[in-house]
Design goal:
With 142 residues, the chain is mainly beta. It has one helix and nine strands; from the N terminus they run αβββββββββ.
């Protein structure tokens, strides 16, 4: 009987352990560098489409939940400049349209967010807070 209780106790210890889900994992392939390849700026009637763009803008996602970009992160821009950073998290709520959100460190508004999606084609799309639809499409570099 003691052996059964001991085995049951050991089983409970091993199955009750949990992982740290607060830090992003790379199950989605998000970790790494992404280069800007297209940009969307809708004219206000829903007819906008992503258009190719020449830019050296690169965003990098790290496994510790941080993100860095070689330019402004608070609003859509294709220009490069000083490095800005922030934190990100994956969204697991099924009622939400986006795969995750970025919280920039440098925006004047603490509520500023950049949402992102990982498309089925393997691209990363950043959605900025705009009056009309606006976003940027990135391809993975590594």
């Amino acid at each position: 009987m003691k052996k059964i209780v001991l085995m049951f106790s050991m089983l409970m210890i091993f199955t009750s352990c949990s992982s740290d889900d607060s830090k992003p994992t790379d199950e989605t392939g998000l970790i790494g560098k992404w280069k800007l390849i297209e940009q969307l700026a809708d004219p206000g009637d829903g007819s906008g489409t992503f258009q190719p763009i020449a830019s050296e803008r690169v965003i990098e996602f790290f496994s510790d939940g941080t993100v860095a970009i070689n330019g402004v992160l608070c609003f859509m821009s294709s220009e490069v400049g000083d490095k800005e950073s922030g934190t990100y998290k994956l969204i697991t709520d099924s009622d939400t349209q986006n795969d995750g959100e970025i919280i920039p460190n440098t925006c004047s508004s603490r509520s500023a967010r950049v949402y992102f999606d990982l498309s089925v084609s393997g691209h990363l799309i950043l959605w900025y807070q705009c009056i009309e639809g606006c976003g940027q499409k990135f391809e993975k570099l590594n």
